[in-house]
Amino acid sequence: MLPHLDAAYNLARFMTRDADAADDIVQDAFLRAHRAFAGFRGGDARAWLLAIVRNCVRSWASERSRTRALCEPLGGSPARGDADGEREENEAWDPDQDTPETAVLRDSEASLVRRLIEALPEAFREVLILREFDDLSYKQIADITATPIGTVMSRLARARQMLGEAWHGRSGEARP
Question: Are 11 and 135 in contact (CB under 8 A)?
Answer without folding.
Answer: no
